[in-house]
Amino acid sequence: MIRLNLNGTVREVEAEPDTPLLWVIREQAGLTGTKYGCGIAQCGACTVHIDGTAVRSCSMPVSSVTADQKIVTIEGLSKDRSHPVQKAWAELDVPQCGFCQSGMIMASAALLAQNPHPSEAEIRSEITNICRCGTYNRVLAGIKLAADGGQAG
Does domain 2-77 have CATH number 3.10.20.310? Predict the structure, then answer.
């Protein structure tokens, strides 16, 4: 059994130590908002926060996370989708197909927690998630809107 602090709740899950954290989150914990995209930590669809840092969970063995580390998935980012990034995403209709968006939102929320007012260059440098629909301009606008406190203009 492996103990994880997942969205504020300590849970025990049964998994092999080398099982990727993504699969433990999706299969054992039943939280399917975190997506599988590539399996090699390139696309970012699997992004979660560990102690506030955005990490790609598809290539991270569950054994590398300790019970005292706080894992937050898209389901735990806010109870009612009231996080500024989620609100900006909805206001600007950022996603197209939406598959990559939970990872994009998690990466963007981590960036804004570390740097509340990033420049465009910083956003472009830090948000390396892949969107097959190409909504990068809307993602950029959403991050800027969230950084500005939700004031479109």
Answer: no
Q: How many CA atoms lie within 13 A of 123 on its CB side?
A: 22
In tens, the pLDDT along 64-89 reads 999 999 999 999 999 898 999 999 99
The answer to whether 146 touches 87, Cβ cutoff 8 Å, is: yes
**H-type helices in 36-135, by residue range?**
74-77, 84-92, 101-114, 120-126
Indicate whether this model's pTM tops 0.85: yes
Q: Measured between alpha carbons, how far is 27 from 9 in angstroms, rounded to an integer?
A: 17
Which class does domain 84-147 fall in? Answer: mainly alpha
Q: Is the pLDDT of residue 111 over 60?
A: yes
